[in-house]
Amino acid sequence: MQPIIQVNQLTKAYANKKALNGISFQIHKGEIFGFLGPSGSGKTTTVKILTSQLLHTSGDVRVFGNPIAQSRHAHYLGRIGILTDNSGLYERLSIYDNLELFCKLYGIPIQRIEEVLTEVNLAAEQRTLVKQLSKGMKQRVTLARAILHKPELLFLDEPTSALDPVNRQHIHEALRKLNEAGTTIFLTTHDMEEAESLCGRIAFINGGKIEAIDTPQQLRLNHSDNTITLTTRQGRVTVERDDSGAARIAELIRKGELLAIHSNEPTLGDIFVQLTGRNLQ
Amino acid sequence: MTFSMVRFQAIVKKEWKDAVKNPQILLLAALPILFALVFEGMADNRLDIISYPALLALSMTGAFTQSTMVCEEKEKHTLRVLMLSPATVAEILLGKSLLTALLTLVVMIISMIIVGFPVYHFAYLALMLLFSLVMFLSFGTIIGLLSRTVSESSIIGLPVLLIFVMGPFFAPDLGGDALVKIVDYLPTQQFMHALSALTEDGGFNEIKWNLLNIAVWTAASLVVCLVTYNKRRFDK
Ligand SMILES: Nc1ncnc2c1ncn2[C@@H]1O[C@H](COP(=O)(O)OP(=O)(O)O)[C@@H](O)[C@H]1O
Ligand SMILES: [Mg+2]
Q: Which GO CC annotations does the UniProt entry carry (chain A) (predicted)?
């Protein structure tokens, strides 16, 4: 099957700076695909190019099979949802009035407003003016607007950066539900836990380059140091994942001293440091 | 390209809800009427003074309101969201302009009545005012799209509009042939010429070149407006 997003050797140079140095990746229908990287690594630049807000310098970029430059039709725009730092709200209007406008623009029933506000935990606030909302609440309204029309493909640039853990959890639930209903999601984040809990596949991006792409599990296995930590009545010991380790575990079990076993897989953040020498923050 | 009445109406409705809560726009609408009240009685049948409130309505209520509204959409990043929705250029720009146009018309007519604007050849007058309205709304849109913040839009907008509005007013007194010649090509100056011709019982033949000038300015401003809009669809 043809990928929904197909990017080949994409580069982007701003006036005096290279932001993307030849990145390539594909996203298939039904995926939640994440870009994980620190600030300044090129995440927003990539999202803006894919959503035709920014022209790229070179490389091949296809969305729904069409080159991005030709994708800018009402038809294409109706199929995608976008949340970036460029996604503003009408401050003097209420949440409801903001969403009502976009219901009309996308040709969807007004009843959807209630539904989508429930998903972002704002149903009680729908008559509140946007200018009276906190930053996190605004981010949730913006997200509600991005998913209002149940887009086939959703772009989210750091969707939960301004949110507290409870609301982040809530948004993650809503995104999973949307994904189960068929929306493909491309999201960026610098939060390894977010990437791990949401994404089927993750690309590590740093300095405009992709350093690795894989499932979170595979990434961790590939970079595991093959040791196992045992918690015993005497304390913790670390053993290798080999015959000597197996013998040791068997012995501890026989003596009734083994309390717990943990395989030592690195966090995505650890792997990121291993690969790039940089922290995610 | 299709034009959706539903989308157009939705944008107009949003614009209306937004404008009534925006004191700046209400002020811009009130100013020309205040000026008209001041000028009333001073006019002495001087056409330039009689026309002044109408030109003010076009520039203040028309162009300035439009540039304020467009620029605020840019500053707050809502214009980009509209551009990335299925709404078309025509729906967005016409939707944004309709309210300003109606407001300007009302303010202009009230101001004209207050100063006792002479109406000869209603059809020609209406045609010229209509062209001017489109032109000033285009100016406003261009200024709004080019400036980064609302305050920057006033800084860019003021000199431009001063030239158009005050040009005809002061040109005769400023002297200097070159300047007078340049001012003479301004659509507002042509509007004055046409107006005085009409007052002296002139007809189409007397004002056809003035009409042409105004029509060309209107068309040119529309084209520049569309080109600017399309450029603003992309980040740099
Ligand atoms: N408009 C711009 N002009 C010049 N440089 C830019 C511009 N936008 C971003 N950059 C640079 O490009 C690089 C990537 O930026 P960005 O894509 O915003 O990163 P991220 O979203 O991962 O934080 C950064 O070094 C940033 O400084
Ligand atoms: Mg960013």
A: plasma membrane
Say what the pTM is. 0.88
> What percent of chain B lies above the pLDDT cut of 90?
43
Contact B234 A55 (CB under 8 A): yes
CA A274 centroid distance within chain: 21
- Give the residue extent of every domain in chain A: 5-220, 225-264
A contacts of B9 (beta carbons < 8 Å): 104
pLDDT for res A72: 65
Q: Do B81 and A92 lie within an 8 Å CB cutoff?
A: no
Span A49-73, mean pLDDT?
87
Pocket of ligand 1 (CB under 6 A): A 14, 17, 19, 37, 39-45; B 236
Per-residue pLDDT of A261-278, as tens digits, reads: 888 888 888 888 888 888
How far is the centre of ligand 1, averaged over its atoms, from the C-alpha of B186 (Å)?
43
Predicted pLDDT at B155? 87
According to the model, what pLDDT value does residue A147 have? 95
Q: What CATH superfamily is the domain A5-220?
A: P-loop containing nucleotide triphosphate hydrolases (3.40.50.300)
Ligand 1 centre distance from Cα of residue A10 (Å): 15
User: Rounded mean pLDDT of A109-129?
Assistant: 95
For residue B26, the model assigns a pLDDT of 86
Q: Domain spans of chain B? A: 5-234
Q: Do B81 and A88 touch (CB under 8 A)?
A: yes
